[in-house]
Design a protein that fits this description.
CATH architecture of the largest domain: 3-Layer(aba) Sandwich
Oligomer: single chain
Bound molecules: pyridoxal-5'-phosphate
Strand order of the largest sheet: 4-10-9-8-7-5-6
Strand content: 5-15%
CATH topology of the largest domain: Aspartate Aminotransferase, domain 2
């Protein structure tokens, strides 16, 4: 389907100039020898339109961030323009400005009880590194300087800058940069589909927590500074926690003096129907890292919500946070964050996400009758479909088969049918969906229809291989 352009672009020229000058993130250019690199020029509601006028469903919300879709740019832009007319920039080093103060207050008001301070960054990776530095300095101020190690989870993604990469468990992204800054032990993710006790939630939860306690005891509890985990883990495919898991993490961290960090760079600001997923999973962490949804992708902004307990040594002047970022809490991004929070509340977006969740699950589960569809999991507007070779045994694909299936078969078919989503084979292969929070059930039906067609097509191709 084509759409009218507001600004016209020469698609061929864009391709040439891109290849001459633009280095892309995580992109194997050999995959684009004869094909276009997708170039998008416009957004409309839950759709984006490429330079050749083709319309796609923004089924991943960009990168889990266009939570309000593409309809509110002009309104948010006006708030940004007003801020720039008033004050272009002032740092949040030794001084401040109203938008940062007000946004910090509003976020703290919506965070779990006692989480009353906010440190701003401009990205999720910086938020994760800022949390680690807060943890280190908190422990140093309390005379516990041995706490130099962290615990994170297998196949997790917490960012790519050198500090955050220590916690990220994406092996290929880590290897070129080792040794990494923070010694980190990676424990099992909440992957019920692949865990021997995954069918029994209580036993599964107990096994996961026992594994962590074992690691803590082995490493030496007095050497561990923080445990970082996503409430619903993205990489690997939307691993939701079994009941009791987050309260269990809280209890373990309290027992051993470890700070608990919920990385809510994706789940924060409504992705699973709440301001923070911590509320949904019944935990008050020591820190919450956030980014993406706080501005719904209208400007770069991230940060850390900090519990009063962790903020105390810094607030009391017992230590000084030895960390700062020029753009952290800048006026433009924080003014945009304030406007986005206003829209999220005005449009009652999270209620709709919570209300739609059962229907989204039910529609996605209809795909389990089709070839290759092994498991559906997720929450809110955040879902994954795991692909398997044999549904009865849950046998997964070899690396070659997964590359072929995702790269040569499914990606082309989904693009032809106009769906942007993620095909991820960093762990067992999954299709990931994360539609804008404003997406309605009609759009979900369209997505499910496209996925169904692609699975049937892929099943036939695989059988004939
Ligand atoms: C859970 C999580 N943490 C951290 C990051 C890093 O954020 P950024 O890419 O903004 O640095 C991401 C990015 O996707 C993420 O999903």
């Amino acid at each position: 389907m084509t759409a009218t352009q507001t600004t016209s672009y020469d698609a061929d020229q864009l391709q040439r100039r891109l290849r001459e000058h633009l280095l892309l993130n995580f992109t194997d250019m050999s995959g684009f020898k004869s094909d276009d690199v997708p170039v998008f020029v416009r957004g409309e509601g839950c759709h984006v339109i490429d330079a050749r006028g083709r319309r796609f469903i923004d089924g991943l919300s960009g990168l889990f961030c266009t939570n309000l879709g593409h309809s509110y740019g002009a309104e948010v832009g006006e708030a940004g323009a007003r801020q720039l007319a008033d004050l272009v920039y002032t740092p949040t080093w030794h001084l401040a400005h109203p938008a940062a103060i007000e946004l910090a207050e509003r976020i703290a008001d919506r965070a779990p009880a006692g989480m009353d301070h906010v440190f701003f960054t401009s990205s999720g990776s910086e938020a994760v590194e800022s949390a680690w530095k807060l943890a280190r300095q908190y422990h140093l101020a309390n005379g516990e300087g041995l706490r130099r190690k962290a615990i994170a989870r297998r196949s997790s993604y917490h960012g790519t800058t050198l500090g955050a990469l220590s916690f990220t468990a994406y092996t290929e992204a880590r290897i070129p940069f080792e040794p990494l800054a923070v010694p980190t032990h990676h424990v099992s993710a909440t992957n019920a589909y692949r865990h021997p006790q995954g069918g029994d939630e209580a036993a599964f939860c107990a096994a996961l927590l026992a594994e962590i306690e074992d690691v803590i005891e082995f490493e030496g509890p007095q050497t561990i500074g923080m445990l970082i985990a996503e409430p619903v883990q993205n990489s690997g495919g939307c691993f939701t926690p079994p009941p009791g898991y987050w309260p269990g993490l809280r209890a373990l961290c309290d027992k051993y003096g470890i700070l608990l960090v919920a990385d809510e760079v994706i789940t924060g600001f409504g992705r699973v129907g709440h301001w923070f997923a911590a509320e949904r999973y019944d935990v008050v962490p020591d820190m919450i890292t956030f980014a993406k949804g706080v501005t719904a992708a209208h400007a770069p902004l991230g940060g850390v919500v900090v519990h009063g307990k962790v903020a105390e040594p810094f607030q009391a002047g017992r230590t000084t946070y030895m960390h700062g970022l020029t753009w952290g809490g800048n006026p433009l991004s924080t003014a945009i964050g304030l406007k986005v929070l206003e829209i999220l509340e005005r449009e009652d977006v999270f209620t709709r996400v919570r209300e739609q969740e059962p229907a989204i699950r039910q529609r996605l589960e209809t795909l389990l009758e089709l070839p290759l569809a092994g498991d559906v999991r997720g929450a809110g507007h955040f879902w994954a479909l795991e692909l398997v070779k044999d549904k009865a045994t849950r046998e997964t694909f070899s690396e070659d088969e997964a590359d072929w299936l995702l790269g040569d078969v499914l990606s082309g078919r989904l693009a032809e049918r106009g769906l942007l989503c993620r095909l991820d084979d960093r762990g067992d292969p999954v299709i990931q969906l994360s539609p804008p929070l404003i997406a309605d059930l009609d759009l979900i039906d369209q997505i499910v229809d496209i996925l169904g067609d692609a699975l049937v097509h892929a099943g036939e191709r695989f059988a004939a291989r």
